[in-house]
Amino acid sequence: MAILPDDPRVSLLDFLREHLLLAGTKKGCNQGACGACTVLVDGTRVLSCLALAVQYEGRSVTTIEGLAGDDLHPLQAAFIEHDGFQCGYCTPGQICSVVGMMEELRRGSPSHVTADLASGTIALTPDEVRERLSGNLCRCGAYNGIVDAVCSTYAEAAE
Ligand code: FES
Ligand code: FES
């Protein structure tokens, strides 16, 4: 990570937005309740408003800016295609959360709605997506489009 702030009280969210000027990560509640600030730390999803920047010295932090290459990330394109947003404020956090969620699925980490806990392979059903993204709120109510976008992007994992 880039040069850390002098003040150890600076959150990872404020560090990204105000020190590194990476404004893609959004501040919603600033208290761990909405998921708008979700980023990936070494591939694991983290609420950056609840983290201190100094905790992550030497770690790899990926924000929405880091997910797209020259083209949109496939999830970004799918969110557009499936109306997965209206105002878009929650969208960067939603997309980072999905990327982290897929890694959890790949590792075989069960959720509250996983039917077969003994199976090492977890199907990407709409219920799994809803449960695993339940920490990412959308005030515009674009949930059905978000689920469609995720399932269509990772269709092979849903089979
Ligand atoms: Fe971090 Fe809401 S801004 S969870
Ligand atoms: Fe507006 Fe989700 S698209 S809050």
Short description:
Helices cover 36% and strands 6% of the residues.
CATH superfamily of the largest domain, by name, is [2Fe-2S]-binding domain
CATH topology of the largest domain: DNA polymerase, domain 1
Bound molecules: FE2/S2 (inorganic) cluster
From the spread of the alpha carbons, the general shape counts as globular
Number of separate structural domains? 2
Helicity range: 25-40%
Question: What does this protein look like?
Answer:
With about 160 residues, the chain is mainly α. The protein has two domains: about 10-65, Beta-grasp domain (Ubiquitin-like (UB roll), Roll), CATH 3.10.20.30; about 75-159, [2Fe-2S]-binding domain (DNA polymerase, domain 1, Orthogonal Bundle), CATH 1.10.150.120. The chain is built from seven helices and three strands, in the order H-E-E-E-H-H-H-H-H-H. The chain has helices at about 10-20, 65, 75-80, 90-105, 125-130, 145-155, 155-159; strands at about 40, 45, 60. A hairpin with a 2-residue loop joins strand 1 (about 40) and strand 2 (about 45). It binds FE2/S2 (inorganic) cluster (FES) (2 copies). The site of one FE2/S2 (inorganic) cluster has 11 residues, from loops.
